[in-house]
Amino acid sequence: MNREFDLIVCGHFAIDRIKTAKTVETIVRLGGPPFYSAVAASRLDAKVSVLSKVGCDFSKEFLELLTKEGIDVSFIKMVENAKTTWFYIEYLDGKRKLRLEALGPKIYSEDIPTNVKAKAVHIAPIANEISPEIFSNIKRIGELVCLDPQGYTRSFDEKGNVSLKPWKNEEILRQLTVFKSNSDEIMCITGTSNLYSAMKQMANYGVKVVIVTMGVEGTALLFNGNFYKIPSFPVSRVVDPTGAGDVFIGAYVAEYVKGEEPVWCACVGSAAASFIIEKTGLLRFGFKDQIYERAAEIYEKLSLQQF
Predict the structure, then answer these.
(1) Average pLDDT for runs of 10 along the chain of length 307
(2) Contacts of residue 235, Cβ cutoff 8 Å, sequence gap at least 6
(3) Can you tell me the distance from the alpha carbon of 240 to that of 21, in angstroms, rounded to the nearest whole number?
(4) Measured between alpha carbons, how far is residue 305 from residues 70, 145, 179, 180 in Å?
(5) CA 134 – CA 143 distance, rounded (Å)
């Protein structure tokens, strides 16, 4: 008998070392899409599992934390003599510097469980760790496939410093229901300097919903030929933006699989992300009622942009 979930998040966890202008010491904490996206979706009552590979440095406390947040951890594989992916993240003058310090084991098609079904699968590489051939098999888990391509668009020098690189796999893009990236990534993928042209190009591959997050400037959303500008929820200050994009898409998909319309889903995603950026610490997520309250305020302010 198949085990059934609303959402499965596929990708590497990260153990992040984070330095911001507002922190004296470097913070070490759990991160990566299987953490941020999964917890965000679970806080909105989605039934969530994660598909990932970690090393022996992935602590028992991390697994206990995920379980406490209602996330199924049975598809996390711990690989002997391997490390979990580690990143050093530094925020300085509003810019982020990213350095890869360790890379976990790659995820292949044979790592996909055979006894599971999901309403949605979110593929979210952070360091090119998901083999592209996984997409040819992922639909046996769930028909709705979402991609955040950030890990495919990252290049690493000999010291692990991260820069943006061109990436495009049309075979993958044509299999997606939802595409989510930031503005730099989608313009790099499409080779255009115009955001809306880039989003239209992505839609031309057959992607039903195209989402581009732009930090405090809000989120651009394209579906059914219409562009929407989803404003960010105003917070008093941005303390730590780590994981905001992953939280956005986790909350978005949690609502989307309930049958909610994409604009509302994006408002919920924006609301969920607002809790992440205004605090520091590991569990700085909002709760369902708080998220919906902020989402309703955002929904009242959104605008439809025709092009």
Answers:
(1) 92 94 81 98 98 96 97 97 96 87 96 94 97 90 94 96 95 96 96 95 97 94 94 89 96 97 97 93 93 96 57
(2) 274, 277, 278
(3) 10
(4) 38, 26, 19, 19
(5) 14
| Residue 39: partners with Cβ closer than 8 Å, 6 or more residues away | 66, 69, 71, 247, 250, 283, 285
- Predicted local confidence at residue 304, as pLDDT: 53
Q: Set out the domains of the chain in order of their start, with CATH numbers.
A: 3-305 (3.40.1190.20)
Dist CA 72 CA 38 (whole Å): 10
pTM over 0.90: yes
Cα separation, 200 vs 179, whole angstroms:
12
Q: Which pair of tokens denotes residue 124?
A: 């979210």
Convert 175-234 into a string of H (helix), E (strand) and C (coil). CCCEEEEEHHHHHHHHCCCCHHHHHHHHHHCCCCEEEEECHHHCEEEEECCEEEEECCCC
Tell me the residue type at 224.
Answer: N
